[in-house]
Design brief:
Blueprint (H helix, E strand, L loop, with lengths): L1 E5 L4 H10 L4 E5 L9 H11 L3 E4 L6 H6 L1 H22 L2 E7 L22 H16 L3 E6 L2 E2 L6 H11 L3 E4 L3 E2 L2 E2 H11 L6 E4 L6 E2 H12 L5 E4 L19 H5 L8 H13 L2
Parallel strand pairs: 1-2, 1-3, 3-4, 4-5, 5-10, 6-9, 7-12
Antiparallel strand pairs: 8-11
This protein binds NADP nicotinamide-adenine-dinucleotide phosphate.
Length: 281
């Protein structure tokens, strides 16, 4: 299978490229190769390579950056998704688009399923939801995969911040009123590998099973590493950031459950594997 990955240089895209490389012709693009906010650039690359499958991991994934640069967020997360969908229709390529738990507003206290109605609380969530809407309207053969709180090898994230702080004995700031499903990017990549060999379409939640607050996540990393440092627990109101986060955005992989394919491991197991994989060789 020939597969283009937009955002193939990012945290998730690089793991998807690694996992799909075996047996497929994978073409990963970063923003300097193809800017997805430019329709002509996307059309040109898709037309040229004529892929069987396009995976769109490209996004402005920094939640605060989206709040501060709303136009850029709409250009990449919403218009970029639209451009990719238009190009895929032209070449009849299947499209897998990556989205987020942040399309949800946080008023529930049980994990969101694919049948819950999104209501984002920040610009990032709003632009990602707009991207989903474009894909649902334009694309005839698509999967939208919503994931959450990713950790993986490619770049720094909250889990790495905690590990580094524990090693250096630095203070950790953990927000109490933020709960979601921490997810290992490699597990998402493996699950995508399974789904590409099916005829499935529609929206799929794809997270490691279970959920926790940021504080519980820090506690679990401390348990795994058997290290402790000073943890300052704050509320979002004390943690001054440009973008508000949903208080609760955990996802349930309900669509995968309904087709008997929810093989995603639990988040504690995923965290242990990630730490072993990245930090203990
Ligand atoms: N990280 C999370 O916790 C999380 C949680 C839920 C959902 N998601 C979603 O998962 C997907 C992947 O996120 P990630 O964390 O892997 O992102 P990331 O590490 O920030 O990588 C973003 C990727 O998008 C590319 N990109 C940015 N602007 C672009 C543009 N204008 N045109 C083309 N490519 C562009 C970047 O290319 P360069 O390397 O060239 O900059 C990079 O490859 C996104 O859809 C995100 O919304 C992420």
């Amino acid at each position: 299978m020939r597969i283009i990955i937009f955002g193939g240089t990012g945290l998730l895209g690089s793991d998807i490229a690694k996992v799909l490389k075996q047996g497929n012709d994978v073409i990963p693009f970063g923003s300097t190769d193809v800017d997805i906010s430019k329709l002509e650039a996307v059309m040109h690359s898709v037309n040229f390579h004529k892929p069987d499958l396009v995976i769109n991991c490209a996004a402005i994934s920094d939640v605060d950056k989206c709040e501060e640069n709303k136009e850029l967020a709409y250009r990449v997360n919403a218009m970029g998704a639209k451009n990719v969908a238009i190009a895929c229709n032209k070449t009849k390529s299947r499209l897998i688009h990556i989205s987020t738990d942040y399309v949800f507003g946080g008023n529930k206290n049980t994990p969101y399923t694919e049948f819950d109605i999104p209501s984002p609380v920040n610009i990032y969530g709003a632009t990602k939801l707009a991207g989903e809407e474009f894909i649902k309207t334009i694309s005839t053969n698509f999967l939208i995969i919503r994931t959450a709180w990713l950790f993986g090898e490619r770049r720094n994230h909250f889990v790495d911040y905690v590990i580094k702080s524990l090693h250096q004995g630095n203070e950790i700031i953990a927000v109490k009123d933020m709960t979601s499903s921490p997810t290992f990017s490699l597990d998402v990549a493996e699950m995508i590998k399974e789904l590409i060999h099916t005829d499935e379409v529609g929206i799929f939640h794809m997270c490691n099973k279970g959920y926790c607050s940021r504080v519980e996540l820090v506690e679990e990393i401390e348990r795994i590493l058997k290290k402790h440092t000073n943890v300052t627990v704050v509320n979002q109101s004390q943690w001054k950031r440009p973008a508000k986060r949903p208080v609760f955005s955990a996802l349930r992989n309900y669509h995968l459950e309904l087709i008997n394919k929810d093989n995603m491991p639990g988040w504690r197991d995923a965290l242990k594997r990630y730490i072993k994989y990245k930090y203990r060789g």
